[in-house]
Amino acid sequence: MKYYLIAGEASGDLHGSNLMKGLYAHDPRAQMRFWGGPLMDEVFRAHEEGEGLVADYRSTAVMGLVQVVLQGRRLIERIERCKADIGRWKPDVVILIDYPGFNFRIAEYAHGAGFRVYYYIAPKVWASREGRIRKLKAWVDRLFIVFPFEKEYFSRHGIPYIYAGNPLVDAVAQSPAMSESREAFLQRTGLPDRPWTALLAGSRSMEIRTMMPVYMQVADRWHATRPDQLFVVAAAPSRSLKDYAPYIGARDYVKLVFGETYGTLRHARAAIINSGTASLEAALIGTPQVVGYRMSRLVPAWLARKFLKVKYISLGNLILDRLAFREFIQSELKADALLQELTRLVEDEPYRERMKADYARIRELLGGSGASDAVAEAMIKDLFASLPQNM
């Protein structure tokens, strides 16, 4: 079978690479072509010769509304390039991995051109932009979801799905960062052996611009009373020093590392996180956290929560269906609130232990290991079932 996969961000590259391992394992004659990154490319090169990587997300990603507007023509060119490449290669299935802004355009084309379309890691239509449901129904042959609370939602909307667990469970457990000693991590990254709080500002430029000023206020005030402690910014691998340097300035108590999210979280005393997947990763790793999120200073917290259509903004809290850790959104997101919660996360041991007990329940609800392999097997089974009986 010929598989065409499309991932547009670092998380998609990670999950795409694990999915590819499963596809190769269950279909040894598999041929793959993909938009992704170095992790997917590494898996491809271990199984096939030639060039499977069409475009690397690190050079093609468009993140943030302003960038989308400024780079509109380039985005359209990439979409058209992708469509043309699919048309030439003629895969048996097009597998879309998250990245809805780009992938919905491809889903429409691929469906119209007669290709089978799978969507892996469903767009978060349950949180916002619910109108995309009709697109899923119209253009996607099979939806592969990764959160237990999505089962009821998509059943209610009449969208067939397959749930086989969450790939983050394996991604975290199998990461080299989870077995690397603190000493080795410090030596490799050049970080000093001092207690630190991890700072995750998100991967989009708008998120960085919004979160870093607040983070630096927290860092300044924390450092004034605890000069022995650090803050380590776990920067997205797709970003560069220029995205963070203007905010960090000359602060020697704020360090910056790229592509080291798991290690930074694992060896941190606590974390301040801009929601998203990183919040769930922190829960799986076991790092006490507080989450902050801000769409726009002009939108009040109550309106933002109404717009998001969910009780909580963090995946871990959504899975648990209650607060395992605090969330501050919009006008609630202030240095004072983060400092108060950070103090509790660092110093209140019973509070930390209760949070870790909630983390254990989140892991339990997500299911066991092997999600990527199970999804790959389910995709192949569904794909063969869709073939004409005389083939």
Q: Report the C-alpha radius of gyration, rounded.
A: 21 Å
* Share of residues in strands: 15-25%
Unreliable runs, pLDDT <50, ≥5 residues? none
Structural class: alpha/beta
Q: In the CATH hierarchy, what is the superfamily of the largest domain?
A: Glycogen Phosphorylase B
CATH-level-2 architecture of the largest domain: 3-Layer(aba) Sandwich
Question: What's the rounded overall pLDDT mean?
Answer: 92
Strand count: 13
The strands making up the biggest β-sheet line up spatially as 3-2-1-4-5-6-7
CATH class of the largest domain: Alpha Beta
- Which fold name corresponds to the CATH topology of the largest domain? Rossmann fold
**Overall body shape:** globular
Number of helices: 19
- Distance N to C terminus: 13 Å
The number of domains: 2
Helix content: 40-55%
Main pleated sheet: 7 strands, parallel
Chain-wise SSE layout:
Elements: E1 2-7, H1 10-26, E2 31-36, H2 38-47, E3 53-56, H3 57-60, H4 65-70, H5 72-89, E4 93-97, H6 100-112, E5 116-120, H7 133-139, E6 142-145, H8 150-156, E7 161-163, H9 167-173, H10 182-189, E8 196-200, H11 205-225, E9 230-235, H12 241-248, E10 254-258, H13 261-266, E11 270-273, H14 276-285, E12 289-293, H15 301-308, H16 315-320, E13 327-329, H17 335-347, H18 349-366, H19 371-385
Parallel strand pairs: 1-2, 1-4, 2-3, 4-5, 5-6, 6-7, 8-9, 8-11, 9-10, 11-12, 12-13
Helix pairs in contact: 1-2, 1-19, 5-6, 6-7, 9-14, 11-12, 11-17
